[in-house]
Structure formats: C-alpha cells, structure tokens
Amino acid sequence: ECFLWSPLVVLHTGREYTLSFFAASTANVSGSDAFVLDSDGFSDSYQWVGAAKYLINPPVGGAWTTWTFSLSADARDGAEFYVRFDNNGSTDGGNSLVWFRDVMLVDGTTARAWAPAAGEVWP
Predict the structure, then answer these.
(1) Which of 71, 83, 91, 103 could hold 75 in an S-S bridge, CB 3.0 to 4.6 Å?
(2) What is the 8-class DSSP label of residue 13?
(3) How confident is the model at residue 104 (pLDDT cuts 50, 70, 90)?
(4) CB pairs under 8 A, 24+ apart, for 43-48?
C-alpha cells in the first residue's frame, strides 16, 4: 500500500465540501481510498479521520470521481487538513499503480473543473 497527500488546506465544520478528480489505475489495483485527515496525523499515526470515501475503483482508462463530504462533529474547526489518496495494493501480488490528476476541492456541493488557487497564480 502507498499513498499521496495534498498540501494543507483549512476546512471548517458545519460546511459541505466537494472533491473532484480524474483517476486511473492498472488493471490489478485492488482499490483506493480518499481521506480527509487532521494535519496532526501522518501515515498510520493520524489521530482521526474527518471524512473518508472507501474503495474508489478507477478504471484503466480513467474516470472522473466526485465526492461531497462534511467534517465530523469532532473536527477542529478552522484547522489545517490533508486530503490523502491511498493505493490499497494489487489483486495479484504484483505492482499496481493509481494516478490522480486535476484534483479540485471546493466549498459547497457543486463540483468544478480544476483551476489554480489565487495563491498559485504568478503575475
């Protein structure tokens, strides 16, 4: 199993967020997951999961995925969080790969195509 995560992002309780992305995989991937993790947590030592979408199964040719979520009531309002994607390994014991691109997290329930954040645009 391996994983990748986003830069830190500030999220708030009582709001809904929508995460959208394009994902593809090799034919032997057993599945992948997406998590919203408290910034205090890394890898297997994270303290709690704010939200989780289990068993995203991206096809070999790829597909768009949209996930709308809210933080749990136990979340730290206004804290920094990571969005983390996990590759859960292969179905045959061989190497398996999952690719993610055009990842976009927005406030609200309407998915949007990837666009750079204001702080990512250079003059």
Answers:
(1) 71
(2) T
(3) very high
(4) 43/3, 48/72, 48/74, 48/75
